[in-house]
Design brief:
Strand content: under 5%
Order of helices and strands: HHHHHHHHHHHHHH
Low-confidence stretches: none
Mean pLDDT: 87
Length: about 270
Protein backbone atom coordinates (compact mmCIF):
# COMPACT_ATOMS: atom_id res chain seq x y z
CA UNK A 1 0.00 0.00 0.00
CA UNK A 2 1.39 3.47 -0.90
CA UNK A 3 3.13 5.34 1.89
CA UNK A 4 0.78 8.32 1.82
CA UNK A 5 -2.29 6.08 2.03
CA UNK A 6 -0.85 4.40 5.13
CA UNK A 7 0.10 7.78 6.61
CA UNK A 8 -3.42 9.10 6.03
CA UNK A 9 -5.02 6.02 7.57
CA UNK A 10 -2.84 6.50 10.64
CA UNK A 11 -4.11 10.07 10.86
CA UNK A 12 -7.67 8.77 10.55
CA UNK A 13 -7.34 5.91 13.03
CA UNK A 14 -8.88 7.59 16.08
CA UNK A 15 -11.76 8.99 14.08
CA UNK A 16 -12.31 5.66 12.35
CA UNK A 17 -12.34 3.75 15.62
CA UNK A 18 -14.73 6.22 17.24
CA UNK A 19 -17.14 6.32 14.31
CA UNK A 20 -17.04 2.55 13.88
CA UNK A 21 -17.90 1.97 17.54
CA UNK A 22 -20.67 4.56 17.42
CA UNK A 23 -22.28 3.33 14.20
CA UNK A 24 -22.04 -0.32 15.24
CA UNK A 25 -23.46 0.40 18.70
CA UNK A 26 -26.38 2.30 17.24
CA UNK A 27 -27.13 -0.18 14.46
CA UNK A 28 -26.73 -3.22 16.71
CA UNK A 29 -28.86 -1.76 19.49
CA UNK A 30 -31.75 -0.79 17.25
CA UNK A 31 -31.63 -4.05 15.31
CA UNK A 32 -31.96 -5.91 18.62
CA UNK A 33 -35.28 -4.11 19.25
CA UNK A 34 -37.02 -5.99 16.44
CA UNK A 35 -38.39 -8.84 18.62
CA UNK A 36 -40.32 -6.23 20.65
CA UNK A 37 -41.80 -4.80 17.46
CA UNK A 38 -42.72 -8.26 16.18
CA UNK A 39 -44.24 -9.29 19.51
CA UNK A 40 -46.43 -6.16 19.56
CA UNK A 41 -47.43 -6.06 15.92
CA UNK A 42 -50.82 -4.50 16.62
CA UNK A 43 -49.28 -1.68 18.61
CA UNK A 44 -46.81 -0.89 15.87
CA UNK A 45 -49.16 -1.55 12.96
CA UNK A 46 -49.79 0.97 10.22
CA UNK A 47 -52.91 2.18 12.03
CA UNK A 48 -50.91 3.01 15.15
CA UNK A 49 -48.10 4.61 13.17
CA UNK A 50 -50.61 6.85 11.39
CA UNK A 51 -50.75 8.82 14.64
CA UNK A 52 -47.30 10.21 13.83
CA UNK A 53 -47.34 13.59 12.06
CA UNK A 54 -47.05 13.24 8.29
CA UNK A 55 -43.83 15.26 8.29
CA UNK A 56 -42.18 12.85 10.74
CA UNK A 57 -43.37 9.78 8.85
CA UNK A 58 -42.13 11.23 5.58
CA UNK A 59 -38.64 11.90 6.93
CA UNK A 60 -38.53 8.37 8.34
CA UNK A 61 -39.54 6.81 5.07
CA UNK A 62 -43.22 6.42 5.89
CA UNK A 63 -42.62 3.79 8.59
CA UNK A 64 -44.47 1.29 6.42
CA UNK A 65 -44.41 -2.45 7.20
CA UNK A 66 -42.33 -1.80 10.29
CA UNK A 67 -43.43 -5.12 11.79
CA UNK A 68 -41.66 -7.07 9.02
CA UNK A 69 -37.92 -7.61 9.14
CA UNK A 70 -37.24 -5.80 5.87
CA UNK A 71 -39.65 -2.96 6.72
CA UNK A 72 -38.11 -2.52 10.15
CA UNK A 73 -34.56 -2.43 8.81
CA UNK A 74 -35.53 -0.04 6.04
CA UNK A 75 -37.30 2.43 8.34
CA UNK A 76 -35.12 2.23 11.44
CA UNK A 77 -31.66 1.24 10.22
CA UNK A 78 -31.26 2.27 6.58
CA UNK A 79 -33.68 5.14 6.03
CA UNK A 80 -32.17 7.87 8.18
CA UNK A 81 -30.03 7.14 11.21
CA UNK A 82 -27.25 4.88 9.90
CA UNK A 83 -26.87 6.90 6.65
CA UNK A 84 -26.87 10.09 8.74
CA UNK A 85 -24.17 8.92 11.14
CA UNK A 86 -22.09 7.36 8.36
CA UNK A 87 -22.39 10.50 6.22
CA UNK A 88 -21.16 12.63 9.13
CA UNK A 89 -18.19 10.27 9.44
CA UNK A 90 -17.42 10.49 5.71
CA UNK A 91 -17.71 14.27 5.57
CA UNK A 92 -15.43 14.67 8.58
CA UNK A 93 -12.80 12.36 7.06
CA UNK A 94 -13.05 14.11 3.70
CA UNK A 95 -12.35 17.45 5.39
CA UNK A 96 -9.30 15.92 7.07
CA UNK A 97 -7.81 14.85 3.75
CA UNK A 98 -6.57 18.20 2.42
CA UNK A 99 -8.38 21.19 3.95
CA UNK A 100 -7.53 20.48 7.59
CA UNK A 101 -3.79 19.92 7.11
CA UNK A 102 -3.60 22.96 4.83
CA UNK A 103 -5.23 25.17 7.45
CA UNK A 104 -3.00 23.75 10.18
CA UNK A 105 0.10 24.38 8.00
CA UNK A 106 1.12 20.70 8.02
CA UNK A 107 0.35 20.04 4.36
CA UNK A 108 3.75 21.48 3.46
CA UNK A 109 5.42 18.40 4.96
CA UNK A 110 3.29 16.13 2.78
CA UNK A 111 4.08 18.18 -0.31
CA UNK A 112 7.80 17.60 0.28
CA UNK A 113 7.30 13.90 -0.49
CA UNK A 114 8.44 12.75 -3.94
CA UNK A 115 4.96 12.78 -5.51
CA UNK A 116 3.04 15.35 -7.50
CA UNK A 117 -0.17 17.03 -6.42
CA UNK A 118 -2.42 14.81 -8.52
CA UNK A 119 -1.04 11.70 -6.91
CA UNK A 120 -1.37 13.29 -3.48
CA UNK A 121 -5.10 13.85 -4.00
CA UNK A 122 -5.61 10.35 -5.41
CA UNK A 123 -3.81 8.70 -2.51
CA UNK A 124 -5.73 10.78 0.01
CA UNK A 125 -8.90 9.66 -1.76
CA UNK A 126 -7.72 6.04 -1.68
CA UNK A 127 -7.24 6.32 2.09
CA UNK A 128 -10.76 7.73 2.39
CA UNK A 129 -12.13 4.74 0.45
CA UNK A 130 -10.23 2.23 2.57
CA UNK A 131 -11.25 3.90 5.82
CA UNK A 132 -14.94 4.10 4.92
CA UNK A 133 -14.86 0.55 3.59
CA UNK A 134 -13.50 -0.64 6.93
CA UNK A 135 -16.34 1.06 8.81
CA UNK A 136 -18.85 -0.39 6.34
CA UNK A 137 -17.56 -3.96 6.66
CA UNK A 138 -17.50 -3.96 10.46
CA UNK A 139 -20.95 -2.38 10.76
CA UNK A 140 -22.32 -4.80 8.16
CA UNK A 141 -21.12 -7.75 10.23
CA UNK A 142 -22.69 -6.30 13.36
CA UNK A 143 -26.06 -5.72 11.69
CA UNK A 144 -26.04 -9.15 10.04
CA UNK A 145 -25.05 -10.99 13.23
CA UNK A 146 -27.51 -9.15 15.47
CA UNK A 147 -30.21 -9.55 12.83
CA UNK A 148 -29.60 -13.29 12.66
CA UNK A 149 -29.65 -13.57 16.46
CA UNK A 150 -33.12 -11.97 16.64
CA UNK A 151 -34.39 -13.88 13.58
CA UNK A 152 -35.08 -10.73 11.60
CA UNK A 153 -35.78 -12.78 8.49
CA UNK A 154 -33.83 -10.72 5.95
CA UNK A 155 -31.34 -12.69 3.80
CA UNK A 156 -27.71 -11.67 4.18
CA UNK A 157 -27.54 -10.85 0.46
CA UNK A 158 -30.22 -8.17 0.87
CA UNK A 159 -28.51 -6.71 3.93
CA UNK A 160 -25.25 -6.68 1.96
CA UNK A 161 -26.99 -4.88 -0.91
CA UNK A 162 -28.43 -2.23 1.42
CA UNK A 163 -25.13 -1.74 3.21
CA UNK A 164 -23.27 -1.50 -0.09
CA UNK A 165 -25.57 1.32 -1.15
CA UNK A 166 -24.92 3.07 2.17
CA UNK A 167 -21.19 2.82 1.45
CA UNK A 168 -21.58 4.28 -2.04
CA UNK A 169 -23.76 7.10 -0.68
CA UNK A 170 -21.33 8.11 2.06
CA UNK A 171 -18.35 7.72 -0.28
CA UNK A 172 -19.99 10.33 -2.50
CA UNK A 173 -20.41 12.78 0.38
CA UNK A 174 -16.94 12.09 1.73
CA UNK A 175 -15.50 12.76 -1.72
CA UNK A 176 -17.58 15.93 -2.01
CA UNK A 177 -16.05 17.12 1.26
CA UNK A 178 -12.55 16.23 0.04
CA UNK A 179 -13.19 18.05 -3.26
CA UNK A 180 -14.48 21.20 -1.58
CA UNK A 181 -11.41 21.15 0.65
CA UNK A 182 -9.09 20.64 -2.31
CA UNK A 183 -10.69 23.52 -4.18
CA UNK A 184 -10.75 26.01 -1.30
CA UNK A 185 -8.24 24.85 1.29
CA UNK A 186 -10.80 25.61 3.98
CA UNK A 187 -12.16 23.01 6.39
CA UNK A 188 -15.33 25.02 7.01
CA UNK A 189 -16.05 25.03 3.28
CA UNK A 190 -15.45 21.29 3.03
CA UNK A 191 -17.81 20.56 5.92
CA UNK A 192 -20.36 23.17 4.89
CA UNK A 193 -20.70 22.22 1.24
CA UNK A 194 -21.05 18.50 1.93
CA UNK A 195 -23.25 18.99 5.00
CA UNK A 196 -25.68 21.38 3.34
CA UNK A 197 -25.97 19.22 0.24
CA UNK A 198 -26.57 16.11 2.36
CA UNK A 199 -29.36 17.73 4.37
CA UNK A 200 -30.95 19.35 1.32
CA UNK A 201 -30.70 16.12 -0.67
CA UNK A 202 -32.36 14.10 2.06
CA UNK A 203 -35.21 16.57 2.57
CA UNK A 204 -35.86 16.82 -1.17
CA UNK A 205 -35.87 13.04 -1.55
CA UNK A 206 -38.25 12.66 1.40
CA UNK A 207 -40.69 15.35 0.29
CA UNK A 208 -40.56 14.89 -3.49
CA UNK A 209 -43.30 12.19 -3.66
CA UNK A 210 -45.75 14.62 -2.03
CA UNK A 211 -44.52 17.95 -3.43
CA UNK A 212 -44.79 18.10 -7.20
CA UNK A 213 -42.42 21.04 -7.62
CA UNK A 214 -39.65 18.97 -6.01
CA UNK A 215 -40.03 15.96 -8.28
CA UNK A 216 -37.44 17.14 -10.80
CA UNK A 217 -35.04 18.18 -8.04
CA UNK A 218 -35.11 14.66 -6.68
CA UNK A 219 -32.93 13.46 -9.54
CA UNK A 220 -30.17 15.73 -8.21
CA UNK A 221 -30.26 14.11 -4.79
CA UNK A 222 -27.86 11.23 -4.09
CA UNK A 223 -30.47 9.89 -1.67
CA UNK A 224 -32.78 9.25 -4.61
CA UNK A 225 -30.32 6.79 -6.12
CA UNK A 226 -29.56 5.37 -2.68
CA UNK A 227 -33.14 4.51 -1.80
CA UNK A 228 -35.04 4.24 -5.08
CA UNK A 229 -33.94 0.68 -5.79
CA UNK A 230 -35.07 -0.60 -2.36
CA UNK A 231 -32.19 -3.09 -2.03
CA UNK A 232 -33.66 -4.74 1.09
CA UNK A 233 -36.63 -5.77 -1.03
CA UNK A 234 -35.34 -6.17 -4.58
CA UNK A 235 -31.60 -6.69 -4.21
CA UNK A 236 -28.61 -4.66 -5.37
CA UNK A 237 -29.67 -1.86 -7.79
CA UNK A 238 -26.82 -1.83 -10.31
CA UNK A 239 -28.02 1.22 -12.24
CA UNK A 240 -28.36 3.42 -9.16
CA UNK A 241 -24.99 2.23 -7.86
CA UNK A 242 -23.35 3.19 -11.16
CA UNK A 243 -24.82 6.69 -10.94
CA UNK A 244 -23.33 7.20 -7.47
CA UNK A 245 -19.99 5.81 -8.60
CA UNK A 246 -19.97 8.05 -11.68
CA UNK A 247 -20.77 11.12 -9.59
CA UNK A 248 -17.98 10.22 -7.18
CA UNK A 249 -15.54 9.78 -10.07
CA UNK A 250 -16.43 13.25 -11.38
CA UNK A 251 -15.77 14.71 -7.94
CA UNK A 252 -12.39 12.98 -7.74
CA UNK A 253 -11.36 14.41 -11.10
CA UNK A 254 -12.56 17.84 -10.00
CA UNK A 255 -10.51 17.57 -6.80
CA UNK A 256 -7.39 16.56 -8.72
CA UNK A 257 -7.67 19.40 -11.24
CA UNK A 258 -8.60 22.10 -8.73
CA UNK A 259 -5.86 21.21 -6.25
CA UNK A 260 -3.26 20.89 -9.02
CA UNK A 261 -3.99 24.39 -10.30
CA UNK A 262 -4.52 26.20 -7.00
CA UNK A 263 -1.98 28.25 -5.08
CA UNK A 264 -1.82 26.17 -1.92
CA UNK A 265 -1.63 28.24 1.24
CA UNK A 266 1.18 26.49 3.14
Amino acid sequence: MPTLVLKTLREYRRSLIGWTVGICAFAGMYTSFFPQIRANADLYSQAALSKYPDSVRTLLGGLENITSGAGFMQSIIYQLFVPLLFTMCAVALGAKAIAEPEESKTLELTLTLPLDRKRLVLERFAALVVGLLGVAVVSLLVVALVGASVDIGVPFGRILAAHSMVFLLVLFFGTLSLTAGAATGRKAAALGVAGVYAVAGYVVNALAPNVEVMSWLNRLSPFYYYSEGRPLITGFPIGDALVLLAATAVLVMTAVLSFDRRDVGV
